[in-house]
Write a structure and sequence with these properties.
This protein is mostly helical. It has one domain (2-69, 100-206, 249-304). Helices cover 73% and strands 3% of the residues. The protein has helices at 2-17, 27-65, 102-123, 127-149, 157-163, 172-199, 207-226, 230-248, 251-270, 277-304; strands at residues 70-72, 88-90, 93-94. The chain has a 3-stranded antiparallel β-sheet, with no helix packed on it. A hairpin with a 2-residue loop joins strand 2 (88-90) and strand 3 (93-94). The longest helix is centred in the first third of the chain and has 39 residues, at 27-65. It is flat, with a radius of gyration of 24 Å.
Length: 305
Amino acid sequence: MRRAGVMRWVRLALFAGLAGCAAPDLGAPLTAFSDSIGKAETAFAKADQAGAARETQLRIESAVAVPNLVMRGKSGGECRTSSLACTLWLDGEPLRPATLVPKQRILLRELANYAEALKQLAAADSAGKVKAAADKATLAVTGIATLVSGAPAAGFAAPIAQLATWIYGRYQDNLKRSAMRHAADEMAKVLPDATEKFATTTRLLLLPERAAAQEEVSRAADEFRRKPSAAAATAYLDKAGRMDALLKADPDAVFRQINETHKELVRVLNDRDLSLAELFQRIDKLGADIETLAKAFEAFDKAAG
């Protein structure tokens, strides 16, 4: 299936290359890139919600063991009529965490906005639409730069605004490609640091699920040995299969592949003579990695349900 996907993109790339001296149409790869990033954002959001729910269960169990350590507010004193909030905390952590990986969620949200902006740039048919999409890309790059260093990307908005003042008509393809190239070049300055900084810590999503899955496998094994049956064997297989998926899930690989795919996109945007074949293959690999991770994350909801 995956090989067929690669060949499909290669055929499209070759067709684009045969179209003449004009730069190949980037609409198809940018749409595929945007779709993949969108799926990654959705998968991580669902996994984070389920992981936070699992972590809440674990923290409640700890709270039951030491009830006197549960505080109203991080330092106590909340939950009064004069308070601004009412939250419960245990050992300096919220008893019910809203998220396990807040910065990773922001990174993926901004990446999704950026990828959508590139897709919109490719499809834009007026100077106004080019500017709107370029502004959207600007905000996404600035958001990621702020997330990584605490400071927004400098000198980015002005060139985009200048691009949008060009005459839209016979120069429309140059305008759109210049806007995409500029946005991609600016993103390339912040994306490697972002993916390196936040990729490894995304494993936090998997820790509580793997621990819970390990216990489920042990219980299923004990039940099968205690009372062997086809039903017990099936349950044992199901629990082992879920544990296997969680062990093979690699959030780091998705972030690395996002970065590698974007590098190829930058190369294509900066060299009109490059074939799109490698870019399509990168996007196909990214989609496959995201699909594998999403399937592992699906087990989170099933376990919580």
